[in-house]
Specification:
By secondary structure, the chain is an alpha/beta fold. The chain is 22% helix and 14% strand. Belongs to the peptidase S8 family.
Length: 433
Amino acid sequence: MPCSVSSTPEMADDARRRFRADGSRGMRVARSAVVIGCMAVLVQTASPVTAGAAPLCTPPKGSPRVEGESWAQRRLGFQRAWALTRGKGVTVAVIDSGVQPDHPMLAGRITEFVDLTGTGKRDCVGHGTGVAALAGGRDLAAAGVPLSGVAPEARLIVIKQQDADSDRAGGARLAKAIRTAADRRAKVINISITTGNSPELAQAVQYAQARDALIVTAAGNLDGDGRSAGPAYPASYPGVLSVASLGPAGAVAGTSDTVTRADVGAPGAAVPTAWTGGYHPGAEGTSFAAAYVSGTAALVRSYHPELDHRQILHRIRVTADGNVGQGSGRGMINPVAAVTAVISGEGPAGPPGGRVELAAPAPADHRTRGIALAVTGTALLLAGIAALGGIFVPMGRRRGWRPSRAAPVTANTAVSEEGDDEPQARPVGTIGA
């Protein structure tokens, strides 16, 4: 999508101050007064932190408000399932950059916060706050904020495995995070991060699955040149629920990496969510799509506690709305159908109230050619976001926290086991509107 957004030297300086780099990409700027249907990325290299200095944590500050209910909430309609379940009794682990614990959507919602980075129980990026809020954040409608997590009564465990000041958060730490989640009996594990294949990571996934955890992960994003870094992990492992990003028109988002197998799609373009210090008016990427699916999985597990993780994955896949083209898997998730549908051969499925018979689903599509995001729907939506007017939402991160796209394969950004003993984990969501 062609676009033009101006930036200032002050914004670039701010990006350098905020995030370290090891071949890193800098921040994406959401300048809502001038953004009309487009986004811009500032590619910067930050100065390294002096050895021995306290880790710098100056998280990007979000917008103070959200304007109107998002297309994603309207499209998914997950509130209609709340008469049956809000996710109570299910533990969801969010493996990410941590969270802002006192954010209105998350205050009192975090059961446990595990920091594997040694940088403190905080979110220096914003990414983890946004992901956790969509999966299980509090419903703020009564407070005048039209935003809610899918499963607002699920138990949330936060496992911080990445920080803005971390140089390498590779497969080993991600594997440890997965095992940590499984040991805490998480039944849904959200991983909005991609990395390369490694035996240690594969074994951690198997460890969690043996404890009946459903792993939901982002399928990954294309790099800035529209190229794939290759199959992403853990999304490519058997039994992992891999999620593509879909836009307002229902098509696969232009940034969604279709090389990696996708089981389903979910909203991942122009998605409002919580952010450090406020709200993000339009997050992008498979990171946020995965969060919607994790919340849906929590609803299903709460309503159907007799089903194991394989049956939950199957139920979410077959109740999706049907593939919408290459790279969409079974298509957009349908939270209400996932909770209420009667599925042949599944066995006992909880109380009968409100369920519907399910038609045969359209075949999944795992082909690897990408489809561009429908321009018109996104442009109109982002034009609405621009009406916020006069509010800067500087969002950025170090190399791992790429603005909406996967980092290209270079000597410093390994994404496969070959030639690198510890593949790099990389979050796969934007930090720009």
